[in-house]
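Minutes, project check-in
Item: structure for the 203-residue chain
Input as provided by the requester:
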Amino acid sequence: MLGSRRQVAELAAEVRARAVGDISAEDFFSGDKPELVQQIRGARDIGIVGVTLARTLRNSIDELERRAVSGSVIRIALIDPSGTAPAEAARRSTIPHRPEVYQNRLRTSIDLLRELLEKPGVRDRVEVRFLPFVPAFGLVLLDPRRPGGIIYVDVHSHSSASGDAVFTLRPDRDGHWYQHFQAEFDRVWEYGRPADASDGFPG
């Protein structure tokens, strides 16, 4: 039996090795993160980077509150509504002359985050930062330093309404690239400006 198991493991490894470079884009990319809220439910360390994060926050804000109350650490970074980033985001979109659309989306996200930080037991567990630039990609990190961690990467479209392409990274499978995007989150985070009272957040 042990011999058979070893042969099966070796065969599986060989199949994986031969498959490198042969995977289709349809198998690699997806158009969304359908299980995100369920995956957030069990996470202790959550990092999110995006442009306005309007849909992500709308769909997950209740679960983020529950995670924060239970002790999870949550870091969220989105573009700064007071700088040039909304205009830059508009220029990259299908509405290049309407930065107010991004400002309105940001307003909704910021209102959700303000309300979140006002909830009992949440303030010390959630940190929000504003980015002076439009990030090249979106990121969701769930327990990135644990063996079962997961990173979602959203590849932002340029002047297209086709939507973003999403791919998933896992530490046991994607080694170098998992570490690369984990480090990218840290670098983006360092450039962010902490939200404070001037933004309507708790001091």
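Outcome recorded: The longest helix spans residues 171-191.
No further action items on this chain.
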